[in-house]
Amino acid sequence: MTEVQMLVIAGAFIVAGIAKGAIGIGLPPIAIGLMTLALPLGDALAIMTIPTLMTNVFQAFYGGHFVALMRRFGAMAVASAVGVIGVAVTLDKLGAPGMTGWLGLLLVLYASLALFAWRPIMPRAGEWWANPLIGLASGAVAGITGMAAVPFLPYMQSLQISRNELVQGLGIIFLFIMGALLAALVHQNIFNTANMIGGAAALAPTFLGVWIGQKLRHAASPETFRKIFLAGMLALGLHMALGLL
Q1: Fewest C-beta atoms under 10 Å: which of 26, 28, 58, 144?
Q2: With contact defined as beta carbons under 8 Å apart, do 170 and 19 qualify?
Q3: CB contact burial 144-159 (16+ within 10 A = b; e otherwise)
Q4: Alpha helices per DSSP H over 92-221
Q5: Chain-centre distance of CA 131, in angstroms?
Q6: Nearest-CA neighbor of 79 among 1, 9, 132, 25?
Q7: pLDDT per residue over 182-221, tens digit each?
Q8: Distance from C-alpha of 212 to C-alpha of 208, rounded to nearest angstrom
Q9: What are phi and psi of 122, to 5 degrees?
Q10: Cis, bond preceding 151 (omega within 30 deg of 0)
């Protein structure tokens, strides 16, 4: 790996870590998009896995609400892992990547409506049946596309939940989904020693970015955070939708 490639990887994970720390999403697409400026896509995907998994471990446990959030979203988390594994066993591969673009369009539509006109709210009383269904659907979509975003990101944004609990709750769901995706990728022999070393080396710049992003999140008001979160979802959707061009 050249010095230029190492600098690109470090910069990619600092930027992606800032997004992760600030709004709880965006690490994989931002890191992969920037790394592919200097690396093949396959290497970028493999390097991304370890920092993504470790930041989700941190995000899931940081904040002081882990037990309460596991009670609230545990069924969704387990169902999401079941969805990923079910698709992985059925297809024996990460499905059809071309679907990612269409999922991106859905995120763009949702985020645009929520930013400018529509603010959906999911009643707390309905979560007991909606959570496992959303989890199972989200896991299945992640197993098909390799991207964890739909439908659980719009669903989580519609809940009556504080910004810090939202970010920690996202970390819990991402942790289960990424753990299941990692198991599927290991089963498919995606990793090699160089990529695993690269992923481990990317941890330091990633957590530096997460620390910066957390400072930005705590400085924002709840309504400002909501708008930033939706703007991040919009940007994520646009990035995913580029695959349709």
Answers
A1: 58
A2: no
A3: bbbbbbbbbbbbbbbb
A4: 99-116, 127-145, 152-157, 163-187, 193-201, 203-219
A5: 17
A6: 132
A7: 888 777 776 667 778 888 999 999 999 999 999 999 998 8
A8: 6
A9: -95, 120
A10: yes
Give bridge partners of residue 122 from the DSSP assignment: 159
The full 3-state SS of 207-222, as one line of letters, equals HHHHHHHHHHHHHCCH
Residue written as token pair 């998994």: 53
What's the total number of domains in the chain?
A: 1
Residue 74 neighbours by CB under 8 Å, 6+ apart: none
CA pseudo-torsion sign 172, 156, 135, 110: negative
What radius of gyration do the chain's Cα atoms show? 17
Coil, helix or strand at residue 9: helix
End-to-end CA gap in the chain: 31
Kindly report, residue by residue over 52-76, the tens digit of the pLDDT. Answer: 999 999 999 998 999 999 999 999 9
- Cα separation, 209 vs 198, whole angstroms: 17
Question: pTM of the entire structure?
Answer: 0.84
What's the domain range around 30? 3-244
**Cis ω for the linkage preceding 28 (within 30 of 0):** no
Q: Does the structure show a pLDDT above 80 at 100? A: no
